[in-house]
Structure formats: structure tokens, C-alpha cells
């Protein structure tokens, strides 16, 4: 693509030569019965969104089999067993056939989560992604004794992902999932999470162990991480959110600084505004962008104009699009032509009926 549109300019992310900066954000689709991706649908879905030199991040993919994951998140894919590796392989091949780079998002669901925490569409513990207020409890701890086992699950899953052909992995540390920097308020202190300063130290230690294990297994050039830091600041307004939010922000900043020590390829962060009313480009990620030495990806509520501004002004290297990319499989082309965009259909975000509906049936621009 020859263009002056910032989002459509090339970018070198480590060893990957990207031809544009429009990234597919991770999107859970719940269309993997028994945890096994269905190549006949998933390969079509991902390859529809693949372009030569594009960058795709998979839906959150479980690193281990926990009861909570099975109970609360039906039909999400895994990457811990040989059958998962075998089923992902043709999906990855289909994406590579189009010339795109494909990372697998690694996700762990703590063994004990409260029933009311089950919604996946949330982007923070307090707020669903479309801005509805939810009365959600804080993430539950994972017993200290589990921590080494979970680290090992991340390590093995990263190896499996690379064996399946993925170009790398993204550790899901956002949305209050386990490695999150934004677990403030959890009730129990232990090795892996919980409230208060002490447990913040534990969370940093645990996150560091996961990052270290995954980097040691597949190499830092194949590892990204997704973080958020504004879970208690649903409006993006730190003053209103109080001291807890500042602590969270400090915690996230500390994790970002540690990533540099490992040479992690990219840091992917979610804008606070997605958790509340539309605030415009908040620049709230700027301190993280400055602190991190590698590729910085911003996401959450972006449209073309703001994405162009973010890249043009150096606020982000890449911008990940969720709902827009879901509804517009040819999103980079639509941006190039400034073409109208399809709306997404919330009713079919997650699986249930015909797997193709709301998955592989969003229309492309007429050529
Ligand atoms: C249907 C749906 C599924 C999502 N699944 C995930 C996921 O698996 N992992 C993740 O980190 N974020 C997930 N998110 C959050 C998105 O990656 C993204 O941050 C959010 O939609 C805001 O970006 P957008 O305004 O471009 O849609 C999901 C969002 C939606 C709408």
C-alpha cells in the first residue's frame, strides 16, 4: 500500500515487516466446541481478516483446563493439548497463506471465579466493554500453591502455540485476568493476586515469573503482553477513581518497565475510555508508551481518524481494532478508501447458533 495515511504505513516490529498498522484485536468468539478450534470456520474467519504484512492477534486461548473456564466461558479454544495444536495448525496456515503475522493470545482463568464474573465481554472488572455498569466482584485469588503450576502452563502453552505455527504469543494480563496489573480490590493476598500494596508486589512477582518463563521458552522476539491499568477508573478520571487507581497505574508502569529488561517485543494497552463514555484520545497511555522500549500497541474505541492521529503523533506504533475489524473483514482496505463501515451485531459476538453467523458472514466491500 502506497499511502500517506499513517495507519497504512509500513512498520518493522522486531523481525516482522508489517505493511500497515491496523491490528486485529483479540476477540473471543466462543465457536470452538470442546475447546478445539474448528478449522473449517476459524480458518475462514481469521484468513478473511489477514492481509499481506498485516498483524492478527487470536482470541483469548486457554493455557490450562480449569473448571471455571469450562463453566463460565463455553466453547473457547485451548492450546494446552495436542488436539489443540493440531486444530490450530490449519488456521495458522490459512493466515500465513495470506502473508499475515499471527500471534496467539494466552489466557488463564483462575480456578475459582465467582459466577457473576463470567462475562467475557467486559474490559474491566466493573464495566462491560460496551459501557454498561456491571456489579462485578473482584477477581478471586488462585491459591499460592497453584502459582508454579500456572507459570508452567503458560510456558508449555507458548511452546504449543509456536509448534502450531503461530509467530508468537501475547500474554493476556488485562481485564483482571490473573497476570493483570489491575486486580486491585481482590480479597485475598497470596502469591498471585489480591488487594493492597503487599499483594501488588506479589502480582508483579507473579507476572514477572510468567513473562520470564514464556520468554525463556520461545524468545522475547516472539512475546507480547496485553495490559490495562484503569479498571477502577471507569470514566478514565483518576481523580474520581481515587488512590486505588493511582496505585494500579503505578503497578502497570512497573510491569511495563520490567518488560524492557526481558526485551519483550510489544506492549499492548487498552485505553481507559473504552470503559466509560467516549472521551476522545485521552493520551493516558503516554507514560507507558514512553516507558516501554519496544513496539507499543494502543486499543480501545479507536476509529480511523483517531488511529491515524495516534500513529502520526507517535503516541502508538500500531493500533488494534476489535469491533470494527470484527464487522469489517477488509478493514485496512476500507480505511484506505475511506469507505463506509459495517456495524457489528452484538447478538452474535459469542457462539451459540450457526457458527458462520456473525463470524464469517460480514460482507466485504464490493470489488
Ligand atoms: C466480542 C468481544 C470479544 C473480546 N474478547 C477479548 C479477548 O479474547 N481478549 C482480550 O484481550 N480482549 C477481548 N475483547 C476486548 C477487545 O480486544 C477490545 O479491547 C475492545 O473491544 C475495545 O476495542 P474496540 O473499541 O476496537 O472494539 C473482546 C471484545 C469483544 C467486543
From TrEMBL:
A GO term, aspect molecular function: FMN binding
Cofactor requirement: FMN
This protein's UniProt keywords: Fatty acid biosynthesis, Fatty acid metabolism, Flavoprotein, FMN, Lipid biosynthesis, Lipid metabolism, NADP, Oxidoreductase, Oxylipin biosynthesis
Domain (NADH:flavin oxidoreductase/NADH oxidase N-terminal): residue spans on this chain: 7-340
Signal peptide: none
GO BP terms in the entry: fatty acid biosynthetic process; oxylipin biosynthetic process
InterPro entries the record matches: Aldolase_TIM, OxRdtase_FMN_N, Oye-like
Family per similarity comment: Belongs to the NADH:flavin oxidoreductase/NADH oxidase family.
Annotated PANTHER family: NADH OXIDOREDUCTASE-RELATED (PTHR22893), NADH:FLAVIN OXIDOREDUCTASE_NADH OXIDASE N-TERMINAL DOMAIN-CONTAINING PROTEIN (PTHR22893:SF108)
Protein name, entry field: NADH:flavin oxidoreductase/NADH oxidase N-terminal domain-containing protein
Species whose genome carries this gene: Brachypodium distachyon (Purple false brome)
Lineage, opening ranks: Eukaryota, Viridiplantae, Streptophyta, Embryophyta, Tracheophyta
The gene coding this protein: LOC104585285
